Amino acid sequence: MQERHGFKSTFGFLMAAVGSAVGLGNIWGFPHKMGSNGGFAFLLVYVILAALCGFVVMVSELSLGRRTGKGAIETYQILSRKFKWLGWLATLSPFLILSFYCALGGYCLKYMVLNFGNLINAGFGTNGLSGDAVFKTFMLNQTEGVVFGLIFVLLTALIVMGGIRGGIEKFCSVGMPALFIMLVIIIIRSCTLPGAVEGLKFMFVPNLQPLKENFLSVLATAGGQMFFSLSLGMGVMITYGSYLDKKKNIHKNAMIILVCDTIVALMAGLAVLPAAFALDPEGKTSGPSLLFVTLQNVFDNMGTVGAVFGIVFYLLVILAAITSSISLLEVIVTHFCDKAAAKGKGDKRKVYSIIAAAAVSVLCILVCLDGMGYSGYWVPGRVLVDGVWQYTATYNDCWLDFFDMLSEGIMMPLGALLMCIMIGYELGPDVIRDEIESHEGHKMHSYGFYKLCVRFITPLLMLLVLGGQIRDFFI
Ligand code: PHE
Fold first, then answer.
1. How far is the CA of 302 from the centre of ligand 1 (A)?
2. 135-138: which pairs have CB atoms within 8 A and are 24 or more residues apart?
């Protein structure tokens, strides 16, 4: 049978796993959510949830994957009788997430090119238009949106084709340290702008009001953010775990991934919010509008150096996004590669990477054509006024948000909830301890805590998160 090459070094694995965790969620989600949900108080809720849910789910997923040495679908089929089908849910989520993740990655590519245009005074720069106008024009240009989205899918597929060791590990081992350096450069610039302090205040000053007013909503926001940001509740960590050898310490590495992801989220806040508050105080500070409208205004307002910072910043975001999108595509590719290998078909990775990327492209094209609702492929946002289609869509009613809600809002917490029930009540928590301690010298010191969490605390919190997310979407 074909040999299954896993991660070569612990560093390589960590860069890949942290790379998966650090992504768009850290850059546009965390800083704003922290700011508008209580500042330091939100951070506290987030850290508690990360410890009680994130850590538990992360350790579990890595262990389950390593135990079977197979992708998500097979892992559940091998281990469980009642939850055999759960792997399919864990493989469907990556499809949905990739559809909008690649679209957004493509937008970042476009913005890098745009800033390059500004640098050399070329016609493909912003041409003096405001951030808002640039973004709208781009969203209405469906061909351009689709082309950039597909370039991003292609880049993702090319790395995945190289395999775990030759593609993902290699790319992340260089890409993640580079991302870190760029982040530090942007933080220094952002925090030294006059007026930057307002952004810091927005993010960090404790404000207990949101917690008092609607604790459930804060909890759901923090929980949803944590799942998405740590790449949990779907096949990613199971898949990466399946490429780990017994010498790697899952318990310790899970903690490192968690801490690194949270630190980068805070750093991302230091990079974007002070600059946004200093140079575009009226601008929105969350979601796509932060990334593509407010920050572009910020770079335009910086003068000539703005274009350089723009290029560095969007490159940083592209790196963050691509190290996440490869982990998502790998979930799908691993499943098919394992299947082919079991049937003695040899190494089919390249073919499967292309097929999976083609399937993802279909959904990605839909999201790009929709242009965040501006081009109106979301029917409820489209109204006929005097025989002409008018688009009333805002950021809240488009395909991107719909796929996001399905995956991040429902499928990920649900997947993680059911996995905890499977471990807690069907398999027994000692499966995880046995796997972690299967190498001499590795101890699961937190076993008592883990057992309590996986059976009671984590599922309960996840139910609350799930309920809160569903409620928030429909309100
Ligand atoms: N963790 C990534 C982010 O924060 C997104 C992601 C989710 C990646 C799920 C893989 C799996 O942007």
1. 31
2. 135/289, 135/292, 135/293, 135/296, 136/374, 138/107, 138/110, 138/292, 138/371
Instruction: Round to whole Å and give the CA distance between 312 and 275.
Output: 15
* Nearest residue by C-alpha to atom 12 in ligand 1: 23
Rounded Cα distance, 381 and 393, in Å: 4
> Hey, which of 54-58, 282-286, 391-395 has the most confident mean pLDDT?
54-58
Kindly state whether residue 381 falls inside one of the protein's structural domains: no
In the predicted structure, residue 453 carries a pLDDT above the cut 50: yes
Arithmetic mean of pLDDT, 443-470:
91
Burial degree of 111 (CB within 10 A; 0-12, 13-18, 19+): buried
Pocket of ligand 1 (CB under 6 A): 20-21, 23-26, 97, 228-229, 231, 234, 236, 324, 327-328
CB 25, CB 221: distance < 8 Å: no
Does 393 score more than 70 pLDDT? no
Domain assignment of residue 259, yes or no:
yes
Q: Which amino acid makes up residue 200?
A: L
Q: So what's the pLDDT on residue 152?
A: 98
Per the structure, the count of domains in the chain is 1
Domain range for residue 232?
Answer: 10-371+397-474
The predicted model gives 6-28 an average pLDDT of 96
Per-residue pLDDT of 233-290, as tens digits, reads 989 999 999 999 999 999 999 999 999 999 999 999 999 999 999 999 988 888 788 8
Angle, CA 317 vertex, CA 312 and CA 366 arms, to 5°: 130
Element (H, E) at 391: strand 388-391
Whether residue 379 is contained in a domain is answered as: no
CA-wise closest residue to 218 among 364, 446, 45: 45
Q: Please choose from 102, 231, 237, 267 the residue to mutate so as to test ligand 1's pocket, defined by most ligand atoms within 8 A of CB.
A: 231
Q: Quick check: 161 and 333 in contact, CB under 8 A?
A: no
CA of 452 to the centre of ligand 1 (A): 27
Among 449, 63, 452, 459, residue whose Cα is nearest residue 253? 63
List, as one string, the DSSP characters of 351-386.
HHHHHHHHHHHHHHHHHHHHGGGTT--SGGGEEEET
CA of 22 to the centre of ligand 1 (A): 7
Only one residue has tokens 């091998």, namely 78
User: How remote is the CA of residue 125 from the centroid of ligand 1, in Å?
Assistant: 30
pLDDT tens for residues 117-155? 999 999 899 998 999 999 999 998 999 999 999 999 999
* pLDDT computed for residue 376 by the predictor: 67
Residue at 2 is within a domain:
no
Candidate from 229, 257, 264, 412 with most ligand 1 atoms within 8 A of CB, to mutate: 229
CATH number at residue 213: 1.20.1740.10
